[in-house]
């Protein structure tokens, strides 16, 4: 199964964090509840800012949920996306009809009950849709198919928009036919009505369902549980406040923002974590692609790319570029006598010795192939490269790795060929630099091995 927001297991730390935040939320709600009916001054800018925060977070969450459906191909996720899309869209007519926001009595032909009825449909519809998602998710099995159906996403959007339009028409055109829930800015009728109690029950059922059906096993379920808890606290404080612009009413609006933003916050956290994982995996893949698995130094692919890059840099700067080619003397005899595991260990130790002699940031030691190694030395003339090659030869000899079938020294040794070129010179090419170093290596082998030879082309 693809790893995503809705499938990533929740860690113990994440569970403790959500539990801690829930305890803080409940503590603040209880504290505010004692003075929920305390009247506060109306703040004209509060409602538009609050509405924009809810709209943006809910619509973003709906979009991300739909994206999860495209990844996991689980239609139940579209039910949850519709819950957030419905919640984000219904805020728009709720603000338009709210007295004092865009007009003294509200727009869209609103009556005195329009805003409160849209609140009931909003805070009652959201937990109902979440409960439907939980039921659908419990009976659903992942379906493997090449692509997600765009038609289902379109249907989800159409249903959400239709629900919002129906709620808006009922609260505006049909407001005279709806029961009276608010009297002279008092919510007491709402709090004591079946509709107000129904909002509380719907949120309580959704919260219990999240805990009971999901056990908060995934990060997404943790965020959803916190969102429903915030929605429940929001409804309770609104009813306890008894009127608009009371302490309970203001705190309830803050809880609405928490309810809409908690899942989005978890989304952002998980996407950041997954991005970090991708970077780690890409680094590991790059290491696998450019590092020799046996010796741990650069492989032939990295050598070829680096040599071309350093050649171009040397051409721009007008500086020399040196290349050392090395070969372990009589390595086939070593394998025949001591076995391939010992041969692998020999390669690793020789690679370590070569790499230990390349100290500058631009130097690169690489396994060229089989028992052959190469060293790229930017900004190095022939005497400087010869000194490094001699240092490598001595480092290999200093290991004292026994090789009775090798040279007369009786230990593992290397032969090295060294060449240096200025890329800006006439006829200078990368292939020419390789050929010069290879010819020097051939001379070292011909002259008895365990030695370093400079390219005769350099001397010429």
UniProtKB/TrEMBL annotation:
- Print the organism lineage: Bacteria, Pseudomonadati, Pseudomonadota, Alphaproteobacteria, Rhodospirillales
> Which of UniProt's keywords are assigned here?
Membrane, Nucleotidyltransferase, Transferase, Transmembrane, Transmembrane helix
Q: Is Transmembrane helix one of the keywords? A: yes
Catalytic activity, per the record? 2 GTP = 3',3'-c-di-GMP + 2 diphosphate
Q: Which SUPFAM superfamilies match?
A: Nucleotide cyclase
**Domain (GGDEF): residue spans on this chain:** 319-457
Q: Does the keyword GTP-binding belong to this entry?
A: no
> What PANTHER family does this protein's entry cite?
DIGUANYLATE CYCLASE DGCM-RELATED, REGULATORY COMPONENTS OF SENSORY TRANSDUCTION SYSTEM
Tell me one GO molecular function of this protein: diguanylate cyclase activity
Q: What EC numbers are recorded for this enzyme? A: 2.7.7.65
**NCBIfam families reported in the protein's UniProt record:** GGDEF
What is the official name of this protein in its record? diguanylate cyclase
TM region positions: 17-37, 43-65, 77-96, 116-136, 148-174, 194-213, 222-241, 247-269
InterPro entries linked to this entry: Diguanylate_Cyclase, GGDEF_dom, MASE4, Nucleotide_cyclase, Rev_trsase/Diguanyl_cyclase
């Amino acid at each position: 199964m693809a790893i995503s927001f809705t499938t990533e297991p929740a860690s113990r730390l994440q569970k403790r964090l959500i539990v801690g935040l829930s305890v803080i939320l409940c503590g603040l709600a209880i504290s505010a509840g004692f003075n929920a009916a305390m009247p506060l001054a109306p703040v004209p800018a509060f409602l538009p800012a609050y509405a924009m925060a809810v709209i943006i977070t809910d619509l973003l969450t709906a979009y991300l949920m739909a994206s999860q459906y495209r990844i996991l191909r689980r239609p139940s996720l579209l039910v949850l996306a519709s819950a957030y899309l419905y919640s984000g869209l219904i805020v728009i007519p709720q603000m338009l009809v709210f007295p004092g926001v865009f007009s003294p009595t509200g727009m869209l032909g609103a009556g005195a009950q329009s805003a409160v009825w849209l609140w009931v449909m909003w805070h009652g519809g959201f937990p109902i849709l979440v409960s439907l998602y939980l039921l659908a998710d419990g009976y659903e099995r992942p379906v493997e198919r090449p692509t997600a159906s765009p038609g289902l996403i379109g249907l989800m959007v159409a249903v959400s928009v239709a629900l919002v339009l129906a709620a808006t028409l009922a609260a505006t055109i049909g407001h005279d036919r709806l029961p009276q829930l608010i009297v002279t800015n008092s919510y007491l009728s709402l709090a004591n009505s079946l509709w107000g109690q129904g909002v509380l029950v719907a949120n309580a059922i959704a919260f219990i369902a999240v805990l009971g059906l999901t056990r908060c096993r995934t990060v997404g379920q943790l965020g959803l549980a916190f969102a429903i808890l915030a929605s429940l606290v929001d409804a309770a404080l609104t009813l306890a406040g008894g009127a608009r612009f009371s302490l309970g009413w203001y705190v309830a609006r803050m809880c609405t923002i928490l309810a809409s933003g908690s899942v989005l916050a978890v989304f952002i956290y998980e996407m950041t974590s997954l991005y970090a994982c991708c970077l780690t995996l890409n680094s590991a893949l790059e290491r696998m692609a450019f590092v020799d698995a046996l010796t741990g130094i650069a492989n032939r692919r990295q050598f070829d790319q680096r040599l071309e890059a350093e050649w171009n840099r040397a051409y721009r700067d007008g500086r020399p570029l040196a290349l050392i080619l090395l070969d372990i003397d009589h390595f086939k005899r070593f394998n025949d006598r001591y076995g391939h595991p010992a041969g692998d260990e020999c390669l690793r130790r020789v690679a370590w010795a070569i790499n230990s002699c390349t100290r500058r940031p631009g130097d690169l030691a690489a396994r060229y192939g089989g028992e052959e190694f190469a060293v790229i030395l930017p900004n190095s003339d022939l005497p400087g490269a010869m000194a490094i090659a001699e240092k490598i030869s001595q480092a290999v000899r200093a290991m004292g790795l026994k090789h009775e079938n090798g040279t007369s020294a009786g230990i593992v040794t290397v032969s090295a060929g060294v060449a240096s070129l200025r890329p800006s010179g006439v006829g200078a090419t990368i292939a020419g630099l390789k050929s010069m170093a290879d010819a020097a290596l051939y001379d070292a082998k011909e002259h008895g091995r365990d030695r370093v030879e400079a390219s005769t082309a350099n001397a010429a």
